[in-house]
Amino acid sequence: xxxxxxxxxxxxxxxxxxxxxxxxxxxxxxxxxxxxxxxxxxxxxxxxxxxxxxxxxxxxxxxxxxxxxxxxxxxxxxxxxxxxxxxxxxxxxxxxxxxxxxxxxxxxxxxxxxxxxxxxxxxxxxxxxxxxxxxxxxxxxxxxxxxxxxxxxxxxxxxxxxxxxxxxxxxxxxxxxxxxxxxxxxxxxxxxxxxxxxxxxxxxxxxxxxxxxxxxxxxxxxxxxxxxxxxxxxxxxxxxxxxxxxxxxxxxxxxxxxxxxxxxxxxxxxxxxxxxxxxxxxxxxxxxxxxxxxxxxxxxxxxxxxxxxxxxxxxxxxxxxxxxxxxxxxxxxxxxxxxxxxxxxxxxxxxxxxxxxxxxxxxxxxxxxxxxxxxxxxxxxxxxxxxxx
Length: 389
Description:
It is built from 13 helices and 13 strands. It has helices spanning 22-33, 54-59, 77-81, 143-148, 154-170, 176-189, 208-222, 271-283, 290-296, 298-306, 312-318, 325-336, 340-388; strands at residues 4-7, 14-17, 40-44, 50-51, 65-70, 99-100, 103-104, 120-123, 126-129, 196-197, 203-205, 238-239, 245-246. Residues 77-126 are annotated as: Disordered.
């Protein structure tokens, strides 16, 4: 879940909000900043752009700075600038700020050109920094579960992987070395949170290798398309300048081996239009209309499933037709990119004969074994009787 830094009309105080909808960010910000109730809007602090769609909010970089203002109030750049970092001169010294009894005064920014830092090297994959730190601020939404959950719940672990991957991608760093550095720092602080246990509670592994692999695969999935290796006639492992290996991924598949795990919203559609169609499907269960409505609202179905906070029962209350076999199989066909029934019948035809042959041979062998065992028992009984006479 994305984390944003939100301020009001004044540059301080700032609060962190972990929500993925405009309504959620506004409600949480009002509560944390103790603002009066009313109608508010969200502004992107760095350029003053109005954020009026949930899709725009989710697309922002992690820890983006937002300004919350009343709906009828205009945003002023000067109010935002005073809360930013003090600009530095070419000599590396900070430009002094002056204060008065009434608060901060305006600051004149100086644009400077710097030579590349010795701590940053250029690689074939982008800029890579030697100083990689864990974004603990972004992990604040799940930090409480590190101490109380051993191991972490799968949903929480997935959130941790996504936050760390987004952080490295925002740094334009896609190397396995950086993945190892940042994953090890989290693992050392919370080693019990990543253990892998069996059904009886026995520890099978410390879980570090699995955690590192998940993080590296997530980075390769979300990094810019132009930096991804294209699948050739023969699959290869290509070594980069640092000795890292990039694992090829099939571009057809998204997360978890699906082709449409979280699809894009159809062109010309919005969440509101999808919600209207869901309402129509709830009111009209006609077999002539319902399949078409469920086909058109696949994006909203996946969004509700992937963003749920509880069990799937909550989703089935919104989409009751998914309990029916035909609608469920149709949804799975879109998700996996193949007809599950055809796959089942093809597997049955190809493997059914082998399975039947195995069972037939097993039954024959078992029958012969039991017959031979009976003959041995009879002979043993006769020998025992003769020896006692």
